[in-house]
Specification:
By secondary structure, the protein is an alpha+beta fold. It starts with 6 loop residues before the first helix and ends with a helix. Helix 8 (230-264) runs antiparallel to helix 9 (278-306) and helix 9 (278-306) runs antiparallel to helix 10 (312-337). A four-stranded mixed sheet has the order 1-4-5-8. The chain is globular, with a radius of gyration of 21 Å. The protein has twelve helices and ten strands. The structure holds acetoacetyl-coenzyme A (CAA). Residues 89, 122, 124-125, 131-134, 157, 177, 231-232, 235-236, 238-239, 312, 361-363, 367, 370-371 line the site of acetoacetyl-coenzyme A (CAA).
Amino acid sequence: MSFHLTAEQKMVGLMARDFAKKEIEPFASKWEKEETFPLPAVKKMGTLGLLGMMVPTEYGGSGAGAVSYCLALQEIAYACASTAVTMSVANLSTEPLLKFGNQEQKEKYLTRLASGEMLGCFALTEPSAGSDPGGLQIKAEDKGDHYLVNGTKIFITHGGYADLVNLIARTGPDKGNKDLSAFIVEKGTPGFSVGAKEDKLGLRASNTVELIFEDCKIPKENLVGRLGQGFKIAMTALDSGRIGIASQALGIARACMNEAVRYAKERKQFGRLISSFQAIQWMIADMATGIEAAGLLVLSAADLKDQGLPFTREASMAKLFASELANRVAYNALQIHGGYGYTKEFKIERLARDARATTIYEGTSEVQRIVIARDVLKD
Ligand code: CAA
């Protein structure tokens, strides 16, 4: 890939690869089969600086930046897509505080999030508000010295293990996206509990749960940014999150291609290795080309972010392209495995299930197309 990486960025990628190879990949299949959330490995990622990669060193982060983050996340995803979404959401959960938090909030939480002492999650989605978060219903009522929160969030990545929730709730009468605000809720706050866990198609080592708020009192100082700024805060965090999911998809795509190539070079049919058939070669050529293109889109969006330039459109392009690619690559890699690929004996079965989520969460492919088209048409 001819994107000029610095020595430091390369080193971060290699460090993540080494860690993933030793401490994630050997266990990924077992974690997924047993639905084990790998908390010790996640904590270790915190000590390696992988959970606060955008957090500056003054707040205890690695300050490695978005390009390094994408390289590292790809390596984790190559080993285990479930662990990668944990890493992605943990990093995303630092964004509201980084961009909109006050000094006190930054000092109180960022170091703990970046080190893995606290695991952060992002609570936006509700049963009737997915692609359209402007329709969310959870309420945070101003009660003078605190906010009183009532309602339910769903599909919250590692919500059952999170120590800090970035909560977006309605704080005024507007029924759209104007009266939404962002809050920090700490685990253990009375009235806050974890509800049902989802039984998902893939990413089964990632914990996806419902969060329930019943007369939950949130201190006034836990408002992040200004009242009514919640939609903008959520969208800003999602811009960064989408680069992360694009990187996750890229890591999955690379793993799928690797499995396909390995299998094609071992499997014989009609007296020949199947890698010698043009039908298989063309599939592999398309996989490799798509992976190269997706890699460049991801790095170019991340590079814009590192330069402090707008990157909303590019993040959506990277997420759209990489997630759809991951699904195409997974489909064809499984096809190359034939009937064996449809059994749990082969890794491609897990990878194909894991890839599916990437075109859905943090904005479906359809939402990414809305973001891209609006931006293009604005020009
Ligand atoms: N950055 C900053 N501000 C933004 C923004 C961005 N990226 N996008 C929009 N805004 C601002 C707009 O400028 C506008 O501001 P003004 O009112 O001041 O003009 C305001 O927000 C409203 O913008 P839109 O009119 O564009 O809003 P919309 O209601 O039409 O929604 C949308 C647009 C792109 C569809 C958006 O709703 C969206 O992204 N939806 C998908 C939500 C999503 O990704 N959910 C995933 C859940 S989280 C998850 O999956 C996490 C996980 O655990 C893995």
